[in-house]
Write a structure and sequence with these properties.
Layout (H helix, E strand, L loop, with lengths): L1 E3 L5 E4 L7 H10 L5 E6 L4 H4 L2 H7 L2 E6 L7 H13 L2 E4 L5 E4 L2 E7 L16 E6 L2 E5 L8 H4 L7 E3 L11 H7 L3 E4 L12 H9 L3 E4 L5 E5 L4 E5 L14 H7 L1
Parallel strand pairs: 2-3, 3-4, 4-5, 9-10, 10-11, 11-12
Antiparallel strand pairs: 1-2, 6-7, 7-8, 8-9, 13-14
Helix pairs in contact: 1-3, 3-4
Length: about 260
């Protein structure tokens, strides 16, 4: 997920699998990205962290937020080595972490507790809320939230990035009741073996009248002036999910 903030700062969240790295780098360069202000690795599974190896090799990075889960995989070891080599400030994000970049406010809502000893890295996924004026995104990583107390902490969000590629263990009724999103996005492959997004999730979204945009149909571009937003699918060879446009003027002409 790529965020281009109003003053031009860049946030990148995850990078897909290792073999997607070159496509991610290519898209970033075509988008005029020169450096990354905040890079968030939601958790160390290869399908989220692998592509970040190429990103770290290709761009200066100011700060990295990591879940802190020690999976011990070769991909994670390479990632941590590249972060150290890059000189980026490295932080293990926990609930309560915040950062303000211009008028954009970033807050971490999960993980609440350390799950470093858990075999399941999904339980340590970083859940991030990004807001600008009236626009807001809740980005769930691969989180599996069933505890009401955690869900109750989430704020209203205009856009929900579905947890765990649309798995039934990540999106439940109480979550949608709490955050009341206007739309949702899901990252998954066509005819994937997991059956994502699960039919239970699709039924819930339909019940709440939440429109779903899926990467199966192409990459998803969201543009906003902080008050309103537009959503379109980009060309399928472009590796991008979210692109928050730089100014009201751009929105006016592209609306």
């Amino acid at each position: 997920m790529l965020f281009k903030l109003p003053a031009g700062e860049i946030i990148l969240i995850d990078g897909g699998p290792t073999d997607a790295g070159e496509r991610v780098v290519s898209y970033l360069k075509r988008s005029g990205v020169k450096k990354i202000d905040l890079l968030i690795a939601t958790h160390p599974h290869e399908d989220h962290m692998g592509g970040l190896l190429s990103v770290l090799d290709s761009f200066p990075v100011t700060k990295v937020w990591d879940s802190g889960h020690n999976l011990g995989s070769a991909t994670q070891r390479k990632f941590l080595e590249r972060v150290k080599k890059s000189g980026a400030k490295f932080e293990i994000a926990r609930a309560g972490f915040t950062q303000k970049i211009g008028d954009v406010f970033i807050r971490v809502f999960a993980p609440v507790n350390s799950h470093r000893k858990s075999d399941d890295a999904n339980k340590s996924s970083i859940v991030t809320h990004i807001s600008w004026k009236k626009m807001s995104f809740l980005l769930m990583g691969d989180a599996e939230h069933k505890e009401r107390r955690i869900i109750d902490s989430y704020p209203h969000s205009v856009v929900l990035k579905l947890a765990h590629h649309g798995s039934r263990n990540g999106t439940i009724k109480s979550l949608l009741q709490k955050i009341k999103p206007r739309m949702a996005v899901v990252s998954c492959g066509r005819d994937n073996s997991y059956g994502h997004p699960h039919k239970e999730v699709l039924k819930l979204l339909d019940e709440f009248k939440i429109k779903l945009y899926s990467t199966v149909e192409g990459n998803i571009i969201i543009k906003s002036n902080g008050e309103n937003f537009s959503v379109n699918y980009a060309a399928p060879d472009e590796q991008s999910v979210m692109d928050v446009v730089k100014s009201v003027l751009d929105i006016f002409f592209k609306w």
